[in-house]
Amino acid sequence: GGAVNMTNKQYLRLVGQTKESTRILFSGITGHGFDMAGCDHCGLENMTVTATGGTPLALVFQARSGAPVNAAGGKNYFEHLRVEGGVVAIYSYGSESNTYIDVDAIGQVGYYNNAANPLAYTSSFVTIAAGGQSNTHHTWIGGSIVGGRNGNLAGNEDSALIINSATTVNFYGTLLNARTTNGGYNAYMICTSQVSFFGAHLEIYVAM
């Protein structure tokens, strides 16, 4: 039921058989599922990651590392992956140049990309950076980002996708869906530049 410690690793990838056949279930956790703080060139592929009996802060947590490995974190790779559950399915704080191919991120917020850790998340294993960090070059190809699963954050953060202080973030054919009873937002972006959506699909929940 505890977190998977991938912190401060390099070139470490966990690869299942397929998204449908390989399932990782976190039971009763309230922290993070995969703790990838300080990871460089790491990744998750060909699996479904879910949670039961608790609400994780993030099922996949990425962050820039602090001392003694200052500024490490980025160039991670995710492919054929379904991440479902948590306050945030995939949280990325100052972790740069990451790639997501055929990734489904489903949570109260599906994907929260930021440069200053506004939710004040921490790692259970290592010290992470503090304050504003460089945060650039993220790519999503296909997949989906879905919010409003088992609750939602308040105000503008009632969103499937949140980007807070980032540059050069590109989405190619990605579905954005704010599945909350009050509608919510497909995307909320602040202090952000050079964000592009190519062939994105926007959907919203409508109460009948």
Explain this structure.
The protein is an all-beta fold and 208 residues long. It is built from no helices and 18 strands. The strands form two sheets. Strands 2, 3, 5, 7, 9, 11, 12, 14, 15, 17 and 18 form an eleven-stranded parallel beta sheet that branches. A seven-stranded parallel beta sheet has the order 1-4-6-8-10-13-16, with no helix packed on it. It is globular and about 40 Å long. The N and C termini lie far apart (38 Å). The model has no long low-confidence stretch (mean pLDDT 90).
Annotation keywords:
208 residues; globular; mainly beta; 0% helix; eleven-stranded parallel beta sheet
How would you summarize the topology of this molecule?
Layout: E1 4-5, E2 13-15, E3 23-27, E4 32-35, E5 43-52, E6 58-63, E7 77-84, E8 88-93, E9 99-106, E10 109-114, E11 136-141, E12 144-147, E13 159-164, E14 167-172, E15 175-178, E16 185-190, E17 193-198, E18 201-204
Parallel strand pairs: 1-4, 2-5, 3-5, 4-6, 5-7, 6-8, 7-9, 8-10, 9-11, 9-12, 10-13, 11-14, 12-15, 13-16, 14-17, 15-18
Number of helices: 0
- Secondary-structure element string: EEEEEEEEEEEEEEEEEE
Overall pLDDT: 90
Q: What is the SS-derived class?
A: mainly beta
Oligomer: single chain
Overall 3D form: globular
Residue fraction in strands: over 45%
Secondary structure: helix percent: under 10%
How many strands in all? 18
Distance separating the two termini:
38 Å
